[in-house]
Design brief:
globular, 13 helices, four-stranded mixed β-sheet, Butyryl-CoA Dehydrogenase, subunit A, domain 2, four-stranded antiparallel β-sheet, 12% strand
């Protein structure tokens, strides 16, 4: 469907259905039933079978209309697509519709204090107990975990095999006694990241996704959706956050549409910086114009690279290409924040709400270094690109092919 046709269809639907008197929960269920939350999904999976970029167009039209946008979150970006790819029909039926309807929020429980860049080195343990799994360990850098209802959990279910082979992927409910979540305060003043302690947490056997010991393959799918979504400026972001913990589902949808995101936006892009340069009267400055041209070029290249990654994946290969748009996104985020600071001058250093532009661009500048870390560090992305896309020799890592429990004992990390 052409862009103009899609925009016209969205506007017509909103004219007929937008009702600010509905609750957020009622409105999001209506949006999901119409396929607007994830319009790129096929109709049988809750979408409309449109191009991947349709979600951005849909959300822009919702905002232009003054309607509350469809729900977003990490469940939409990563959990639902992963479960649709690897889950059983029962898992899809139980977990995907609540994401599309905004009824649950998800977080990622991958990284650990001793297994960040080396994700496969994780030691969180899941042991079978009848028809359930009992989980012990610690996760860190889990974005928005305090608001989440479920976690995409990686845990080791077998220490007797090489480290990549003994991992499983679970849909872990977080509202239980065995889960403790502690916020990590960042230099922005926010606490988006968290550390999560798992002490006898329980996960039903029916929520092991992709099969026991197949977690590394499922993880690659999750990371692919994360990196292509981030690299293309995916439609997972938004406010209010989905799920009951954000306290928004029962509110009037018209009121929720007017609520600003807490702390403002922490990532800015081409459109934001261009609007700022115009407002500040800096578009005739040759240095600013050069920066805008460079930012526009990087943005378009990032979008095209993300499209290439999706096209290659649709042909059955090229998953490592997804790491390219993630590296591109890091460059875009840092360049955009730095250019905005150049446009604003010293005022950009004031990140508080009473600063220029509500402190938005100051917060973006302080937050921008995080783009080199979240979603996988730049160094890891470049390693993957070098080894899996360019075919360069792999690193000779110690312990390759040995049972992971034996490796841990040799370095003094075993229980």
């Amino acid at each position: 469907m052409a862009g103009d046709d899609l925009r016209a269809e969205v506007r017509a639907w909103l004219d007929a259905h937008w009702d600010p008197e509905l609750s957020v929960d009622e409105w999001w269920r209506l949006v999901a039933a119409a396929g607007w939350t994830a319009p790129h999904l096929p109709p049988e999976q809750g979408g409309r079978g449109l191009h991947r970029s349709a979600g951005t167009t849909v959300r822009a039209e919702f905002a232009r209309h003054g309607a509350l946008r469809p729900p977003g979150g990490l469940g939409l970006l990563m959990a639902a697509p992963t479960i649709l790819t690897h889950g059983t029909p029962d898992q899809i039926a139980r977990h995907v519709p609540p994401v599309l309807e905004g009824r649950v929020d998800w977080c990622q429980l991958f990284s650990e204090p001793g297994a960040g860049s080396d994700l496969a080195g994780l030691t969180t343990r899941a042991e079978r107990d009848g028809d359930r799994w009992v989980i012990d360990g610690q996760k860190v850098w889990s974005s928005m975990a305090r608001q989440a209802d479920y976690g995409m959990l990686l845990a080791r279910t077998d220490f007797s095999v090489p480290k990549h082979a003994g991992i499983s992927w679970f849909a872990l409910p977080l509202d239980q006694p065995g889960v403790t979540i502690r916020p990590l305060r960042e230099m922005t003043g926010d606490a988006v990241f968290n550390e999560v302690f798992l002490d006898g947490a329980v996960c039903d056997g029916a929520d092991l996704v992709g099969g026991e010991g197949n977690g590394w393959a499922v993880t690659q799918t999750t990371l692919w959706f994360e990196r292509t979504g981030i690299g293309a400026g995916g439609s997972h972001a938004g406010f209010p956050e989905p799920g009951p913990r954000g306290g928004m589902l029962g509110r009037r949808a018209g009121d929720a549409a007017l609520v600003p995101a807490p702390g403002g936006d922490t990532v800015v892009g081409m459109a934001d910086v261009l609007a700022l340069a115009r407002a500040q009267g800096r578009t005739d400055d040759p240095h600013v114009r050069q920066g805008l041209a460079r930012l526009h070029t990087y943005t378009r290249l990032g979008q095209w690279t993300a499209q290439r990654a999706r096209a290659e994946a649709a042909r059955g290969g090229g998953q490592a290409v997804a790491n390219l748009p993630k590296v591109a996104q890091t460059r875009i985020v840092k360049l955009a924040a730095g250019l905005a600071a150049d446009v604003m001058g010293a005022g950009a250093l004031l990140a508080a709400p009473d600063g220029p532009e509500g402190g938005r661009f100051g917060r973006a500048l302080v937050f921008s270094p995080a783009s080199s870390i979240y979603g996988g560090t730049d160094e890891i992305q470049r390693n993957v690109i070098a080894e899996r896309t360019l075919g360069l020799p792999r690193e000779d890592l110690p312990g390759r092919g040995r049972p992971y429990g034996e490796v841990l004992r040799s370095i003094g990390r075993a229980d």
